[in-house]
Specification:
Elements lengths: L1 E5 L2 E6 L5 E3 L2 E3 L10 H6 L2 E7 L9 E2 L4 E5 L2 E5 L4 E2 L5 E2 L17 E2 L2 H17 L3 H9 L7 H22 L4 H6 L18
Parallel strand pairs: 5-8
Antiparallel strand pairs: 1-2, 1-5, 3-4, 6-9, 7-8, 10-11
Helix pairs in contact: 2-4
Length: 199
């Protein structure tokens, strides 16, 4: 990414190499190749963009601003503004008159927050882990003389306990950063915990 500078101002941002007319001279896309030095490009007003990601945050938890571009001290910098945390809790939507916003079926429109979305993923993981052993439970309900092996019963109980514990930890978060921290591994473990190994 490059900036085309004229009169110490950014005229345009160039995302991909392409031919350009600068002043009265037509340049081929080769001006962006190794054949041209940085100094040669700078001499005709083309500066490589330097990215400042100091304000950029994890997009799973934050909405970042669009990049803004600045030219100063012979350098084009692309930087982000202050990121905004995504919605943590569910929000009931309202219209301009602060009345509940309803969908076509008359139900309250609710925007799901990160907590709900993360808990839904945990439930989905637990369900997919339990599914391969569901047949044991079905067979035990249909065949009077059959009982679920103890290892399977223990595994299923442990998977449910792990799921409930993870959801509880998610519920206890009061900030987006606390939620994100649950997923950070340190020495091979994470605060959120793990599901048991399959039997």
């Amino acid at each position: 990414m490059w900036g085309l500078i004229e009169n110490n101002e950014i005229k345009k941002i160039i995302n991909n190499p392409k031919g350009l007319v600068i002043g009265n001279t037509r340049h081929s896309r080769k001006i962006f190749s190794f054949r041209w030095s940085e100094a040669e490009r700078n001499a005709i007003g083309i500066y490589e963009v330097v990215h400042d990601n100091s304000n950029k945050k994890d997009e799973k938890y934050y909405n970042n601003t669009n990049q803004s571009f600045n030219f100063a001290d012979g350098k084009v910098t692309a930087s982000y503004g202050t990121a905004t945390a995504k919605l943590l809790e569910d929000r009931n939507e309202v219209d301009e008159a602060e009345e509940p916003l309803l969908d076509d079926k008359g139900n309250q429109v609710v925007t799901k927050g990160l907590k709900s979305n993360h808990k839904a993923k945990i439930k989905q993981q637990a369900s997919s882990l339990l599914a391969p052993t569901d047949w044991y439970v079905v067979k035990a309900t249909e065949v009077e003389s059959y009982s679920v092996p103890e290892a399977v019963t223990t595994y299923r109980a442990d998977a449910r306990t792990a799921s409930n514990d993870m959801e509880s930890k998610i519920d206890s978060c009061s900030t987006v950063d606390e939620l994100a921290a649950l997923y950070v591994y340190t020495d091979g473990t994470r605060p959120l915990g793990e599901f048991p190994e399959a039997v």
